[in-house]
Design brief:
Distance between the termini of chain A: 54 Å
Oligomer: homodimer
CATH class of the largest domain in chain A: Alpha Beta
Helix content of chain A: 40-55%
Radius of gyration of chain A: 22 Å
Number of domains of chain A: 2
Largest interface: A-B, 111 and 111 residues
Number of helices of chain A: 15
CATH architecture of the largest domain in chain A: 3-Layer(aba) Sandwich
Shape of chain A: globular
Order of helices and strands of chain A: EHHHEHEHEHEHEHHHEHEHEHEHH
Structural class of chain A: alpha/beta
Strand content of chain A: 5-15%
Largest sheet of chain A: 5 strands, mixed
Number of strands of chain A: 10
């Protein structure tokens, strides 16, 4: 379903897999401590979610209010959507201009609202919600939050809105396989069974095989950081649809591992776009980056050019060019001593997206083991949240 | 029009301005060597451009084909657009899926095409164009390319399409004030006179004042890189509309300065979104970043909350919260020893965008002087381009 090629990582010799980390992972999984992952084996919850979203399917538009982990997984999934309506709008910011523009376009009678905040305390989401309510956007509202008293749940109760439980043992950035990812995905007509199936296959390979992809990936990344000074991790899919997946990865990686002075800085790039924006820096700037290219099989896809106006394009497709550019960038990075990992997928679809997201979740967790970090907290941002509340009160 | 506050940069003492670099800049400008900048004093070209785009104004959609410098400046400008139609689509990639989806939605009879490639050789743009032609999207086509024989110009001639000259002495990433930025901006109903006016004021301050913003910015950035190991430059506007501006900056900075092992890696962030995605890493991960926050005056903007459902929000607006979050992030970065520059603007509009873009263009050029680099070439990417053509021929 996907392949990981580490030949371009310039390790000289293969790293021996740290089996003890894999065993720790398996033990934690077996003890039920990795709830975000075990979700992928479920099916019944989906049936229930399908029922919950039914009233929304008649709408022209659905707004998804939420930020960070409450938004990015859903956006990564929705990027695969081919349906016309309802059209989903992910509102993950509090720019008054964005909302003003949005309100001009929406009909409150044909717009639904899904509000997601694990803690139920996220000030951005609460402010979005109150603003939408004042504009009459409350025809149908669904709330997702933890099963405990919090401002969002209280508000939902006062308005008689249905409320789904955000699993307490699943942090936002690991929530893509839970209700948090599933509701937007189902609203967008995404095949969530295939998504979970792709993820489940990758999970199983990490429970069963001795050299699974994420273990090797985690070790290579740390080796390159610690021994070769590669302090940035550039994720560069050659697919417009994987752009939000790359942003999802950036949150997952940054928040899980950026602590105690450790962690590498994730950078989302996009092929071929960033060949015309960042590649000069990548090749000839500071050699501080580790690259991961995501390579779907593009050859032959798209319209075959019949015109002879540009002779070299005759009988070629856009996909052929995409493929050639990808291969050229890969080779050029290697020739310029830039370590690069190549992750191949057949095509961009639910199954491969699920596989990639599971791979990177496990790679993040294994890296946290190797770095002796807690991959599931984010202690440093609490001070800023407190300050923001303080300034708002002024 | 905009302010630059360097107090959070933690320099201990003020750096003395390197006046000789400013003089070199002024001499180059006076000798006509900085053509991208002097464009902002012109007005007559706009009148001509307005005439050229007239046939496009009747359309529902206009596709802008181009990549990198042929796209990002226009996208930064179009992000300010408030008009309904024509709706602009910037196509800067060659993902067959994106095009297939696009073709499903477009009516060839009500769609115009603007094709931008300085060299006229950009394979992505040529492939996009041929594919669009085969789909019958050639009701009205406008080409922007250098005034010399090249595949794109030949193609335009063979089809009798109007062709505007891309100024040969203006590189793509510096082209936002030229025809390359102006045509999409005019199509999007942007006030290009205000845009150039904002830029012209900043330019003039660099020709006249002894401590202009870009000189101080360039010196601070280099000091932090060389003396404090800050190898990443994070640009974080608190405005959805400035997202593409941040991507434009990333190209400008990366391609101009990422050479000979020098340069810092630009990262586009977005407030408040990335407070929920990257801030944990920024505050407690490796201390390798220099931050620039772009701060519009948001207080009081947006609907005033009247509901008492969440007591702390009563009488507050979304803009008040945006402001409080910005201030909190700024303070938190400082408390965590992260050097941060604060750039204040009144509001996000054409004038302030022009000012910011001019500031960063001059900051880039002055940094190139200080680093002894050529800010206008991009030698390292040529090999990849050659390889891509080679692989395409296979």
């Amino acid at each position: 379903m996907f392949t990981q090629n580490l030949e371009g990582c310039q390790l000289e010799e293969k790293l021996s897999p740290k089996i003890e980390m894999l065993e720790r992972f398996r033990k934690a999984y077996g003890a039920g401590e990795l709830a975000p992952l075990s979700l992928v084996e479920q099916r019944e919850d989906i049936i229930a979610f399908q029922k919950v979203i039914e009233p929304f399917l008649k709408f022209e538009d659905v707004l998804i209010l939420g930020t960070g982990g409450s938004s990015l997984g859903g956006q990564a999934l929705y990027a695969l959507s081919a349906q016309e309506k309802p059209h989903l709008h992910f509102l993950d910011n509090i720019d008054p201009h964005t909302f003003e523009k949005l309100f001009m376009d929406l009909n409150p009678k044909t717009t639904g609202l899904v509000v997601i905040s694990k803690s139920g305390l996220t000030v951005e989401t609460l402010m979005q919600l109150l603003t939408c309510m004042q504009r009459g956007l409350m025809e149908e509202v669904l709330v997702i939050t933890e099963p405990q008293e919090n401002p969002l749940r209280k508000l939902a109760k006062s308005q008689n809105w249905p409320c789904l439980d955000h699993p307490p043992d699943v942090g936002g950035r690991y929530a893509c396989f839970s209700v948090v990812g599933m509701i937007p995905a189902l609203l967008g007509g995404i095949d969530v069974f295939a998504f979970r199936k792709g993820a489940a296959e990758v999970l199983r390979s990490h429970l069963e095989n001795s050299e699974p992809t994420a273990l090797l990936g985690a070790q290579v990344g740390l080796f390159l950081k610690n021994k070769r000074g590669k302090s940035l991790s550039v994720l560069m899919p050659y697919s417009d649809q994987l752009h939000f997946f790359a942003l999802w990865y950036c949150q997952l990686w940054a928040e899980s591992l950026g602590k105690n002075g450790k962690g590498t800085t994730p950078v989302a790039a996009l092929g071929t776009v960033d060949q015309h924006s960042q590649l000069q820096l990548y090749l000839d700037g500071p050699k501080d980056k580790f690259f991961t290219l995501i390579a779907p099989q593009w050859a032959g896809k798209g319209d075959r050019i019949t015109s002879t106006l540009i002779p070299e394009f005759v009988h070629k497709t856009m996909g052929d060019l995409f493929s050639a550019e990808l291969r050229a960038t890969y080779e050029t990075l290697i020739r310029n001593q830039c370590p690069v990992r190549l992750m191949g997928i057949d095509e961009v679809n639910e199954k491969s997206l699920g596989a990639l997201m599971m791979h990177f979740m496990i790679e993040t967790i294994l890296t946290s083991y190797l770095e002796d970090l807690n991959a599931f907290d984010q202690p440093a941002v609490e001070e800023g949240k407190r300050l923001a509340r303080e300034y708002l009160a002024l």
